[in-house]
Amino acid sequence: MRYVDEYRDPALARGLAAEIRSLVTPGEVVRVMEVCGGHTHAIYRHGLEELLPPELELVHGPGCPVCVIPMGRVDDAIALAETDGVTLATFGDMLRVPGGRGSLLEAKARGADVRMVYSPLDALALAAQEPDRHVCFFAIGFETTAPATAVTLRRARAEETPNFSVFCNHVLIEPPLRAILETPGLRVDAFIGPGHVSSVIGTEAYDFIPEEYGRPVVVSAFEPVDLLQSIAMLLRQRADGRCEVENQYTRVVRREGNARAVAAIGETMEAREDFEWRGLGVLPKSALRVREAFAAFDAERLFTLPGARIEDPKACRCGDVLTGQIKPWECGVFGTACTPERPLGTCMVSSEGACAAFFSYGRLRRPREEAPVGA
Amino acid sequence: MPERVRRRRPVLRDERITLAHGAGGKATRDLVEALFLEELGNEALTPLGDSAVVPPAGGRLAVTTDSYVVHPLVFPGGDIGELAVNGTVNDLAVAGARPLWLTAGFVLEEGLPIELLREIVHSMGSAATRAGVPVAAGDTKVVERGKADGLYVTTAGVGVLEHDLELVPARVRPGDRILLSGTLADHGMAVMIARGDLHLEGDVASDTAPVHELAAALLRLGEALRWMRDPTRGGLATALNELATQSALAVRLQESVLPVRAPVFAACEILGIDPLYVANEGKLVAVVASEATDDALAALRAHPLGAEAVEIGVIEAEPEGIVLLDTALGGSRIVDVLVGDPLPRIC
Fold it and tell me: Is the ipTM value over 0.85, yes or no?
């Protein structure tokens, strides 16, 4: 695995960490939000925070696709799975997410037909294998996974698959970023932009952040050396008095993105009026639904769903964590009523969620991290 | 078995297991004699009594039981039969026992190809011979099609402790060293890839093997050997978390020395799985007194199954009950207990 090795090279990492130290001003805290849950996971898995000076504070953003799905939508998925003759297929991460009526894994134990797949095309293949059942794919994810759903919808229409549908929960990255940027008393100075989403929508999609909100962005890959380099690039922008969108993930991401992937999304899906985000509330034009032309494959048109709106638990402060207002451990139920085993809030559900990553990998470092917060 | 039954050499003509093979009549007898006894027969088993009667062992006994439900039944590097023998032998071995006897109970699904069953029981016999541990008693049941995934095996094992050592977490001390007999995650990744639903291919084989000789080599260290485990389901992380909790000490691992084969590492990366949590079936993790580290490593490396043995970490007094990992990059993190299945992350 030579490819990964060079992005995990300790000497390179030490060099970048030294550069980061040289670029911060003692006592002046810079708060950098990594938008993507994949970045959060990598930061904790490799213990990157210990390489950073106390003046560099990482804020874990909203980019975990599992974490942002509201409980009402999980209940809708459970209702689908419990419908006679319906098989619900979804990604493994989604199975443990609690809704108002438990998780899909619990529904499966009660007898619902829930299957784990690795791609929407696997779900379509399942429909072909089991013509007596209706296979519904519970689609989640940002612009990263939406193209795969789009291609699957196209193929289902081309093959006229009669027993397949998509329960579409794809979300868009710009609205939650705007919501965070509009937060009164915003505590984020710079952004590490998501890597995989950007491979689809390009780096130009973030131009509004420096232009309208005066915050620099560096789109980053996922290995530890990538992340350190991205942080250094953000600090260099500040040192140079620049504020722009830069691309660290040049081996995959283009400024204009992937036009074919964007076109596939546009052909099969359109923006919803609004969509509820766990922790962030209802955001206009923040999610996608299946277009009329693909209505025959739209679970929301084919089935009557409960569609209930379920309030997040009062004690849970996931919204404040997602917007960088508080660190995971500053939430009153962190590690007590809310643990990875029994998650109360969304950030504790997936290993990419800020709270779960912090709980699993870093909970001993709390005292050290508290210092810069009060600084 | 009475002489007049043994006169005729039993023949098994069926191609697949049917409910008749579990009914207790002639088909059952044919299956037992023409397949199980052929492959596993020994002094204790062959009389086919209701109990096997074995000689006294002369020491404290270790007793263990385990069930095997692996799917697929045959995977690169082994099959469920070999796995069942090695797994049971290993549970006895890391308790400090010399394995003596095994038993095996089979739940067979109607429709199971007899040739596949023979292949599995044959490799069970080979594994038992390799480990020098006879299968002394057995049982077979057949369930209807759809009620079992081909076949399940439940084993029991008995071993004897020929020393006075207590291999318990309470004997582990700060400063003790943690040794690992070889590479991580081979078995778990081999089975995940063999299932086929990941559409991955790779040169990855299960490490299923008996570690009783490695354990015996470490037992010769005497008091310097504190504790041993075979890090199976849940992987090294789970075994060490149990040690940390039960000893109320901390375990500190060094990421840069953890041995993982390149194709296994690649498969873990693609699936977003941490090799620390993936099952091993032929590895041993041991805690030894610091001054015995070199001797212990030499003892492990002298055996082919321990050729890649390494020191992977140290026991510390604090933080109590926690497993820490110093990352290759110079950071550190907690290696927590596993919650749920290690499901692949989606992006």
Answer: no
